[in-house]
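Q: What structure does this chain adopt?
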Amino acid sequence: MSNLASGEIAGLNFQSKNRFINRELSWLAFNARVLEEAENEAAPVLERVNYLSISASNLDEFYMVRIAGLKGQVDADVTKLSEDGLTPVQQMESIRAEAKELMKIQQRCWRNLRSEMASAGIAILKGGDLSEEENAWLTTYFEEQIFPILTPLAIDSAHPFPFIPNLGFSMVLKLRRIDDGQIMRALIPFPQMLDRFVKLPGKEDKLILVENIISLFLDKIFPDFEVEQGAWFRIIRDTEVEIDEEAEDLMRTYQSALKQRIQGSVIRLSVNADVPDDLCKMIIDEVGVDNLDVVRHDGLLGLSDTGEIYGIERNDLKFTSYEPRFPERVRELEGDCFKAIRAKDFVVHHPYESFDVVVQFIRQAARDPDVVAVKQTLYRTSNDSPTVAALIEAAEAGKSVTAMVELKARFDEEANIKWARDLERAGANVVFGFLDKKTHAKISLVVRREGDGLRSYAHFGTGNYHPQTAKIYTDLSFFTCEPELCRDAAQVFNFMTGYTEPKGLAKLSVSPLNLRDRLLGLIENEIEFAKAGKPATIWAKMNSVVDPIIIDALYTASNAGVEIDLIVRGICCLRPGLPGLSENIRVKSIIGRFLEHSRIVVFGNGAELPSSEAAVFISSADWMPRNLNWRVEVLVPVENPTVHQQILEQVMIANLMDVTQSWVMKPDGSYGRLTSDKDSFSAHTYFMTNPSLSGRGSALEDHKPQMPRLVSDRS
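A:
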């Protein structure tokens, strides 16, 4: 992935731009690790198909957002260098090369998985593979289910080339009229409401692609023509939403902007490898795409659609089902969340423990006559969100309900607009935060009348209030009624609703106000411990490490002798293990059955880790400029001794010990997978085996740490 020679890497210092890894190339390396799981024979075949689909969907979104932004810079002749010293043009060149290789591997992986599925009894057929009975059934299916919604379009001076929406999939044809030999070009847009894979009748799992069905019946679509040439193509458009900073009504502005999104410029055109040159040129000219952004695929276009195959009822070809456990503390108190929180702060570890407890917290607040107010942030949630339903119930019950709905949550804008309307109709106070910042903090605050006064209860999360993603994302939910934390949470809500900057926060740190400064101060403390000859350690787990100020602070800490272990699932722009720069920094990435999403930060505080003296935090923020500069995020100290021990000695140590799903990052930005066998430690298996964090000691007590070594050198 890196274009640096080993000698250049070894000589990097604080003056070198190359001390940072390019953000976009690091993301591509992450998606390559996801794709690697599709080739991991230790996983069942349908799970591997799902990984392939995720990898392809990730890449689509990468083009829609990141490549679109870079392409806009190139078109505007922007020459500003990235943190790693590349111009937008240079970045685009490197990205195209890496993405092209990634797409080639995706297609190879699809061919292999298709063969493996066939061996397991899931066949994806072509027209020539069908029996007489299947052909007859398919004819009826086409006439009744597909033909009525197809719209074949002639392309000529009277019929201009139609608008193709983002992720639009279409067939382009060169036809010859039978009676006079006249040539016509035509288009068949693929209706987006159609499933891509159609299951044939019978007990066997036989599938056929819809485009193959359409191709079989072109004579019914164009009865007066013969097909001379044909090919399928798919486009990706720029989906960035531009918002006027002077907008008076943010919801109405977003509704308008979302309508404009579908008309974004074409960022990538994918075509069949065998598409005739004249048809390919016509598509390129009509959609207005750069030749450099045309990708010819020798395989399946739109690999993200392979996720449909996962819906086949073949549990023998999937991971053994796993049901999360409802937290013991709340269950023992007959579901009374408030009583459980009053007894002692507690933490819930998703997806091993059920997200239902978070919903129960809000639902109980809605139905409790002593609750007077509920405040909630909503960044992403589901279409049938039980959290929103509970907030609506609370508002209809006459409680003061404040919902901080983030309209700028990319690709969830429409859903959030709908929820905002529903909440407003129920009588809730709905606010949209800041025009120039996203509200990404995950906080619930419930105010309850108890005795002669009021008591507040808070939930701080590392993940979204989304019951579906909570089944596959690893996150932490922290419940507390500690007065200072709750007062701080109330101030953060006032900041979001009334732009009132929090004054004198006792415990929480908030971006963009002071979160980065708090982290830098904690890093500096560890540097001072190292200089004094005391143990100095930083452990951190998150999705991305990009912020150059934080990275340079970590380099400084490494040079001072601070031992640093980072668990970074996705993008990491820091180069670990370089003498004189980062020799005391180690970076690993865990990619597996569950998506590692929790953000945890640990500072040794002058003691050997694990230690009760350590400073432990959970957060909604990754270490990226956008999180620290342009988002409202919180960093939450964990001081309750039991919760402190659970997060430090169970969650963090288990992740540090993981071998089965771990990759180690090298100085050049490439990753090597750790060797593993049936006895290797897996953090995911460890927590599935005994999901509750309560009543457990350190993960070290159950498993001896293993000395990992590299098994592969994949970029």
